[in-house]
Design brief:
By secondary structure, this protein is an alpha+beta fold. The chain has 2 helices and 6 strands; from the N terminus they run H-E-E-E-H-E-E-E. The protein starts with a helix and ends with a strand.
């Protein structure tokens, strides 16, 4: 899953897929990327009006248990608020993970690959 996610994010960055206010947030340990997430207009679920999305949330195995995911998410939420958004969304198939960061389930949709994913919302 990590490699697929990393490759998708890498391709989007190479193709300058991010525009306007969209950003990648990265946590660095020297020259190494410890973790990252994005704030973008859309995510993998088509035909929904939710925006912005926090996506590609990942922390390297050796950096877990350091609340790095939470720090990245909080940075993305603060940036969304700075932009004038009062909510941010996140798509995931994980159960009881993002709720601990204050996200609430608001919807469930089929992803393009056929799996059911949950859309979570967090006030900024």
């Amino acid at each position: 899953m990590f490699m697929e996610s990393r490759n998708q994010l890498s391709e989007q960055m190479k193709k300058c897929h991010f525009s306007d206010w969209e950003r990648v947030f990265a946590a660095l340990d020297g020259d190494h990327i410890a973790g990252y997430c994005t704030l973008a207009k859309t995510d993998c679920i088509p035909d929904v009006s939710y925006t912005p999305y926090i996506g590609f949330v990942f922390v390297g195995e050796q950096y877990r248990s350091n609340q790095l995911s939470e720090k990245l998410i909080l940075s993305a939420l603060a940036y969304a608020k700075e932009l004038g958004f009062d909510k941010a969304y996140l798509v995931s198939d994980h159960v009881n993970l993002y709720e601990k960061y204050g996200f609430v389930k608001i919807d469930e949709k089929e992803a393009p690959w056929g799996a059911m994913d949950t859309i979570f919302m967090h006030l900024t």
